[in-house]
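INFO batch 0412 | record 1 of 1 | parsing
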Amino acid sequence: MKISFITTVLNEAKTIQALLDSIQTQTKKPDELIIVDAGSTDQTCRLVKSHPLKNKLSLRLIQKAGANRSQARNLSVELAKHGIIAVSDAGCRLDPDWLKRLTEPLQNSSVSAVAGYYQPETTTVFQTCVSPFVAVMPDRFNPKTFIPSSRSLAFKKSAWALAGRYPENLNFCEDLVFASKLKAKTNLAVRPDAIVYWSMVKNLPQFYTQIFHYASGDIQARYRPHLKKIISVFVRYLVFSGLPPLFLLYLLVPVIKRYHYVNHPLAIFYLPLLQITSDIGIMLGSLYGLFKKRS
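INFO prediction complete | emitting tokens
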């Protein structure tokens, strides 16, 4: 069972090294590595070309300036020599047994795709506070309802075609749309022990940008599981405009719900701040997504 590993990059000079290093230390290595660069202006391409991994397996760096994530991923799958595709992202670090565990179920002819798990990787209190806002925390992980992102995913080429490929009109939320179709149209297995360590953003502006893009993508994709949450944010602030004291009580909610993930005094400050930033990012990002969809 030969495997093609694919990933897309754009100005990932600070993160690509960790991903490539973790591919090199896999207990089961891919048979080829395809990286599509969407027009990096930093040292990403140089780091890829100079990495020792290129001497140990077939590594192809394809430069496709202006390509979005979906276009780049579809191109990677099209060019892949092998029938099994494994996907992750720059900004992630693979557990040494990730590829082995992720692809084992595909040896069963009835399984067409496998979802792995992505665990937040943090080094600061701020990053630990960010984790429950953007990641599926271990105590909330349900294999029956889990829809994976493409940080930790493997599938057969035939399943990719059956699911209609990645939606090329989307640059955000594209992986959830694709994974939802994989789950609906093929047999998707879940391997929680196939772990990718996902580095959290380091500061508030980065967090805002992340949430803004997520909300914009959700609206453009009309991704129903998230649309209800977006609407609820607008509704709650409409209520706050008529009952301002409720807003002060609302600031306690993220502390009550998420403090146990952090267990640090600074979380009492960070969690409400992140909640407000998230709400602003959701509202502005969704409005931007609505504008983009209509234009």
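INFO post-check: The chain has a mean pLDDT of 95.
INFO record closed
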